[in-house]
Amino acid sequence: MKSKTIGIVSLVCYLLILTPCAYGMGIGATPATMEIEVGNSESVQKTITVSNPEDAEMEFRVYNEDESIDWIHISDPTFALEPHQKKEVTVRFVPTADEMGKFDTKICIVSLKIEDGFNMGSGVKIPTHITIKEAAVPVYTNPATIILIISWLCIILICVDRLRRH
Fold this sequence. Notes:
Elements: H1 2-18, E1 22-24, E2 27-30, E3 34-39, E4 44-51, E5 58-64, E6 72-74, E7 78-81, E8 86-93, E9 101-113, E10 121-133, H2 143-165
Parallel strand pairs: 3-10
Antiparallel strand pairs: 1-2, 2-4, 4-8, 5-7, 5-9, 6-8, 9-10
């Protein structure tokens, strides 16, 4: 009987460890980590679900820990949630044309009790790995393609003009 109880407790602990979300006192966030791949001068959106597991209204703040990365935009950085309510927050990654490489940062979510005058809060950090690659140039904007198309149009116009004269 004792080994069966230990097995069940071990299984529950194992499942809690592998759950893909982050929890802190007074805050829940999904996903627990983010992997982003984006082309420079392109845009990618990801959604974070923030939940209030407490029995009191909580105020939340979402921000990027690395302030030097100014191309990460959070749709609703401050908001309040009623007890056991959830909210989806959109995080947009919009690197500039000259950004390239790999970046590691953390999206932080902090909660504070609104009613409590003490203002003690908690928070979670979502590790975020961003890979920025060179964006593919569409064929119709490639300078070599434009020159080739213009050359073919000129050849066609010259041929049509010669056919009309004969």
